[in-house]
Amino acid sequence: MAQPHLGLIVPPAAGAVPVDGPLLYGERIRFSARGLGLGEISTRGYLDVIDSVVAKAVELKKEEGVSAISLMGTSLSFFRGATFNRQLEVEMARATGLPCTTMSNAIVNGLRHLKVRRVAVATAYIDEVNAQLRGYLEQSDFEPLALEGLSISDVQAVGKVPTRALVDLCVKVFEAQPGADGILISCGGLVTLDAVREVEERLQVPVVSSSPAGFWDLARTAGLDARSPGCGRLFAWTAPA
Hints:
InterPro entries: Iso_Racemase_Enz_sf (IPR053714), MaiA/AMDase (IPR026286). The chain is an alpha/beta fold. It has helices at about 20-25, 45-50, 55-65, 75-80, 80-95, 105-115, 125-140, 165-175, 195-205, 210-220, and strands at about 5-10, 30-35, 70, 100, 120-125, 145-150, 180-185, 205-210. It has 2 domains: about 5-100 and about 210-235, Rossmann fold; about 105-210, Rossmann fold. It is about 45% helix and about 15% strand. The protein is globular, with a radius of gyration of 16 Å.
């Protein structure tokens, strides 16, 4: 069987494949990426690049020959709400003729898969983006309880946030308002696999994080086995979409 080849549209200009893909799937799945050149994690930054998403999807099909594509930027796809996210997915699919998804779909699908509705939310974002995320989650029938961000707008800085800071923030939002079924870590630039494992073990609730969930969701969108043992509850067992 040929190695599956999937496409990613990522915020940084360099267009590198995020580290979670190879960590989760090794040689099982090949990934190629195109970068958008996002200048900052804010509405202003999103507006500068959002109109080039569909063109990047077409590039991935024509130049790389991928079989499915995801926009791997959570806030890039939720900042205008759930309806816009759906429209973006449809436009990508129409332009490429391929199964397409977004990282905003990924977090919603991951939370639903793990039966999380009341959610504690830890993010990298500034307040403006946190408000947009709260709206997107509410439109998608979730109840965000405590929601707090690290106030980062620098695209490169998010990848340098240490695991301990992520774990501490997850514990803080989970304990701030009792009753959450699970935790969401939102921002595709955060490196979170170690934090997900630690928080799930410590708090005994499921954790969905943007970048790992993005790869899980794309694998399912492509009809592939998205499991990856030892990488958290989301990857323990799942069927293709």
